[in-house]
Design goal:
By secondary structure, this protein is an all-alpha fold. Helix content is 85%, strand content 0%. The protein has ten helices and no strands.
């Protein structure tokens, strides 16, 4: 790599972090679906491209914001796209072993099981949410033990029976 290539890469990374920070701010403050969709698209790209963005995403508690948002969505096309992007972002973040532990909360697990159940007939949404739930639970033995309540097992078994 030439020094010019390093400089361009650094500039691109800086621009990506700037867009990422703006998107996090919009996510925390906007109620406008169009603005939220733009922010989520930026977050999907930035978390796909950069470990630093994934780390900042977790520090901003954006995973809880996005899961809360996903739980308020209905089954309209714009909301389905929003949920798909949210699950893609969380999947991007979960690709990093040091960060995935931060996703392992009871709230996240309950939210993901709700999404698995809600979108069991939407293959993309079902696979994304179920895979994410599996990835998080497979990384945290304590959470897996705590999450293995009778009620939660019944919910999962009910989904499998459908």
């Amino acid at each position: 790599i030439t020094p010019v290539g390093i400089h361009n890469s650094s500039r691109i990374q800086h621009a990506l972090l700037g867009s990422h920070a703006e998107a996090l701010q919009i996510l925390q403050s906007s109620k406008n679906l169009s603005d939220v969709m733009k922010a989520v698209r930026i977050l999907e790209e930035s978390t796909h491209e950069s470990y630093s963005c994934c780390d900042e995403f977790i520090k901003a508690d954006a995973h809880h914001i996005l899961l809360s948002l996903a739980l308020t969505c209905n089954r309209s096309e714009p909301h389905l796209e929003l949920v798909r992007l949210i699950l893609a972002i969380l999947t991007n973040v979960a690709q990093h072993p040091p960060i995935v532990q931060s996703l392992a909360t009871a709230f996240a697990m309950d939210a993901l099981i709700d999404l698995v159940q809600r979108y069991r007939d939407k293959s993309v949404h079902f696979v994304l949410s179920a895979s994410l739930l599996n990835k998080i639970l497979s990384r945290d033995y304590t959470l897996r033990l705590n999450y293995s309540t009778t009620e939660r097992r019944k919910r999962l078994q009910g989904i499998l029976m459908m």
